[in-house]
Design a protein that fits this description.
The chain is α+β, with helices and mostly antiparallel strands and 319 residues long. It has eleven helices and nine strands. It has a five-stranded antiparallel beta sheet, with helices on both faces. Strands 6-9 form a two-stranded antiparallel ribbon. Helix 3 crosses helix 8 and helix 4 packs across helix 6. The two termini are 40 Å apart.
Length: 319
Amino acid sequence: MPANTLLTAIRAHLKLDPMHSVVIEPITKGASGRTIIRLKPENHPTYIGIHYTMERADNSNYLPVAEFLTNAKFNVPHVLYDNTARCCALVEDLGDNDLHAMRNEPWEVREPIYRSTFQQLDKLFYSRPPKDLEFQPPFDPEMYVWEQDYFYDNLAEIHLGMSAGETQPLRDHPALKQMADGLGASARHLVHRDFQSQNIIVKDNTAYLIDFQGMRRGRQEYDLASLIFDPYMNHSAEEREKLLDMWEDISEERPADDIFMKCTTQRLMQALGAYGNLVSNKNDEWFAQHIPTAANLLREVVTGTDLADPILPVLDLIK
């Protein structure tokens, strides 16, 4: 069992006696397909234990990406022990307070955390990883098409019950292909890939990045859209404008509206596909509450554009 493997790992790392007390605390949030627990060995600091399988290709990337980010002095939890043969690692415990947990705090409280988060994103844009570090497949046109199909497969058909005959004309709409081709042909920089509030840990009023195993090359605007149009936070239009102003202040550049809105469309389609998969295929009802929010955000983004025709018929079925 994964918990037993992680218990063995922490005993080996700390050279603990087999009878030394270690309390296990499950960590259930997230959808990475990994087992993540908090390990509390008596008279020692706590650790986060991660056990993964190879069912998801990105899981094997966690340790090499973590090493790169640590060496580049990003704010990430330090890997304290790893055993790739047993697919497990022990990492620094930064606590439970993430940006999502601060969603009801006043803007004045959240503002410095967003500023710290954007500083990390800006730094990622300029970082140069080792040449031999392999990331997940880049955001090329095929990857964007995959996200679009993920939306139609899991949200439209499986979750909402649309037939293949109903979705096929939507998938084939030229505006979707044009979006995929345009974004996929763009310059590629490092992208976190899941840059949202639950993956930003807050410690000492500073943002730390987690769940970065899906890092790949793509457009920076995708990460920016993931954070600003985060369904878990459901920012108001006023807050989204404040975040864009803050990003412009940090990066000295504001994203082009057309590119940013298309990256937002792609990200929200991906998120809705993921929610549909998690609710209908994985029986995780927690994500159901976020489907209407993500759908409303996506509706706002595509209404009045050529992307409305292939997307709104799906969103119209969401109650």
